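Request: Show me your protein:
***
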Amino acid sequence: MQPAITLVSRRWHRVFYSEPDFWRCVELVAEPLDRAASQGQARQCFAAQASVLRRVGGFVQHLCCSQVLGTGGDKTPLDTAQLAADSGSEWQLGSSVLAHLSPATLQSLRLEWVPVDATLPAALGRFTGLTQLQVDYRGMLPSSLLATLLRLPQLLSLQLSSKEMPGLSAALRQLTRLTQLDVASADSPFSTVFALTRLRKLGWHEQRWSVLEFDLQHVLARLPQLESWCISSFSSGRAHMQVGSLTHGSTMAQARWLLNAGATCPGLVH
């Protein structure tokens, strides 16, 4: 749907779509598409998104692209891929969005439960000026996408959340320029972060069946620039986090223990 301001006159229409300051931060969220789908207008909604990004994609510096409905514990995914197929649209959240952005302009990107298809890693690899990246994914994050991170030389802040991340350790060992890292996954080896000696903010959240052994003094010695951290281990079993000689455990399902100092690691700008 066109904003009302664009209907005032041709001049207002031109100004609205040509002023870079209006489009520095853009959010593509799921709610409008969900409402359109319920009214049988999903195809028109996809077409409107595509039309706007064709006009303004070169201005966008910070993009949040999300297919999540609700907030907090009530979050549910919107299956945009299925909606696109059902409506006959080739446009959907993901690589089709990135195709209209400028590698010279985009600085931060957030992809929340967005479909990761075979073309997304290559599309992401174009943005060599990206400094902040957040990817929240429901399933297993493809190793090809993690390998793409090595093609982003300006990347300083990385936030990843996924059920599994094969190839994460190999990628992190080479991303030594990172100053902020936040990872939430299952059984990712914590020792990998020791290669990131420039880290100032660290978030590490594991879901595991075995005990996470954690030596705070060793971590601080290996990461001398660390200013704030939040480290957690959560599982349905007991004795899942060990700090020095002290073992934390619980018989309660989904028990969680945290170690933190200073401020908790914030999310990316979006």
Residues 242-259, 262-270 have pLDDT under 50 and may be disordered. The chain has one domain: 23-30+57-76+101-261.
